[in-house]
Amino acid sequence: MDGGQTLAAKHAFEAHADSCEVKIKGYRAGNGRFAEKSFRDDVKNAEQIIDFCDVRAHQQSGIIERHFQKLSSQARIILLHAKHHWPTMIAVILRPFAYKYAKLLYNHLNVGESGYSSVQKFWKHSGEVAMKDLHTWGCPCFVLDSVRCRITNWQCKIKMGA
Fold first, then answer.
1. Mean pLDDT of the 68-96 span
2. pTM for this predicted structure
């Protein structure tokens, strides 16, 4: 992404956070796009702070590296499980989708010491996770009731404003 796209992503994230009544106070970032003047100026104008982690700052990168390692291991397990059950359709090229699903599971199901998941803390919502909405990744599914499917799609379009 270029600098303009990075700023657009920052603004979109902050708009989403604002809709959840969360105020973004600061960022911790690596150098690169985040160290550009346009990004730093935008952070300053929003009355936020930004901290930079140097590539050699092991005390900062260790936490995120462990997190990425956990997600990568979980994605590998998800992919291998799907490959075992549906070997003709599952390939390594689907790894980014397995990683994204591992991240979704982590954010919704990993409960910290506070008793809340990351999503619950971000949304400041203590509701239960709708387990019926979490499906096994990589399994084939079939629509057996076309009327219910059309109603569900219609309801989704209303919620999304389409």
1. 92
2. 0.66
Long-range contacts of 19-24 (CB under 8 A, 24+ apart): 20/122, 20/123, 20/124, 21/124, 22/122, 22/123, 22/124, 24/48
- Say if residues 99 and 71 touch (Cβ distance below 8 Å): yes
Cα 32 to Cα 110: distance, rounded to the nearest angstrom: 31
Task: List, for residues 7-23, the tens digit of each pLDDT value.
Answer: 999 999 999 888 888 89
Q: Six-digit token pair at 42?
A: 């935008």
Count of CA atoms in the C-beta half-sphere (13 A) of 55: 2
| Amino acid in the structure at residue 38 | S
What pLDDT score does 116 carry?
87
